[in-house]
Amino acid sequence: MNTKLFKNKVMAIVAMFTIVLGVGIAMASTHKAAKNSKANFAISWFTYDGSGSITDPLNYVEASGTPDCPGTTSVCSIQATVGSNSKPVITPALQTEINNAVNNHSPSTNVLLQDQ
Asked: What are the percentages of helix, strand and coil residues in the chain, rounded to 5?
């Protein structure tokens, strides 16, 4: 076998291994960064302050722990991702859940009701 041809084949194999290794490291780093970014979304309970719309994040105050909300007539507290200024992130799905809980007089996973 030709020595020059052998060296070229070895160099090609080393180059391909380096590329595969680099892609693997890049993918692992991207996966780790994505996993860490998901971990930064804290979920908390927020108590409704009674001052306006039940779907407006500005009308909620972050609670410490799960609030005690006995009843079924009006919003007491919601569970949501903590957004800017410690206000809840009210997604369209959560907005629907809030409205359904109030309309059906039935608390849900993320909505606690109270009697006034």
From this structure: 50, 20, 30
Model pTM above 0.70: no
- DSSP calls for 42-78: -EEEEEE-SSS-TT-GGGEEE-SS------SSEEEEE
Residues in a beta bridge with 114: 74
Q: Where are the domains of the chain?
A: 1-40, 43-114
What is the DSSP code (8-state) at residue 40?
Answer: T
The set of residues, in sequence order, having a beta carbon less than 8 Å from that of 15 and lying 6+ positions away, is none
The per-residue pLDDT for 69 is 94
d(CA 79, CA 91): 11
Q: Report how far residue 87's alpha carbon sits from residue 104's, in angstroms, rounded to the nearest whole number.
A: 25
CB 53 within 8 A of CB 89: no
